[in-house]
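Need tokens for this chain, all 330 residues.
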Amino acid sequence: MPEGHSVHRIARQFDRNFVGRPVSASSPQGRFAEGAALLDGRTPTLARAVGKQMFLEFEGDVWLRVHLGIYGAWDFAGEIVLDPTIASANGRMGQTNQRGVDPVYDDAGENSLASIGAPRRARGAVRMSEQTRGLEDATDAEWPPPVVGQVRLRLLTEATCADLRGPTACQIQTVEEMLATVAALGPDPLVDDVAEGEERFVSVAGRKPTPIGQLLMDQKIVSGIGNVYRAEILFRANLNPHTPGRDVPEETLREMWRDWVRLLSIGVETGQMMTMDDLDPEAHRRALAHRDDRHWVYHRAGLPCRVCGTAIVLEEMAARKLYWCPRCQA
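Here are the structure tokens for all 330 residues:
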């Protein structure tokens, strides 16, 4: 499932390539025909992300709400313009804390040129979702591109096409409905005031008897954290995921929120869930090139902890995989 950094990058992609341009909207699959008809011919005026949900405003106070869920993806084709806020001068995504190191992009991770967070001018398509491989570049300049697979919604400008496949939610909302949806979500560091968001998170999570490992995944408590960030934030805090929220020291809750602020910013900047700090240049290159080299515990079941050597545990918590170190997080 896409985590918060992915959706913020997708919203920026729409802001750069669709806002201010009239769109043709259709539902090739047919499941969103009525909604597409309502959007057809309108001009997007604002794109915003809150946690794992994206909201696209159209003229006439009409909003499109999209939640990709586990299987959803946006595929972009045509002329795709880089977002200057997350791209460096040479057109590549910036890095975290490793200045002077040439970027390396993997073939299957979040930031490869054919994957999640790599908008660029192309004749083919670029997929923006979580843990999905990019589509192959087209061999010709057919326009608009042919519909491939089950496309719930196609948005088309004169130069750019966005196809939505497999979302959990794709619906039209009024202003009031959009505001109600956002109000029900927990704080997002890139949307809400960071200090106010910290107070909201600490006050709510600190009262709950629910294990902190579940609370971090509850989008009503904090927006945008998914399986990867959950495991990594807990490890970085040396916190047992089964600890009830009300038993977590207040300062630890504050440290986790601040860590989320930092990690989310890194994710948006790089397109990758980079959760290991202070890597030397070669280690940083490996981490950019291979997912398994950029996390402390995620996806490392049975492997030795990078800190203490204890085997990383994999268990199920609330129907989602949880990775943690039983010694460092005792």
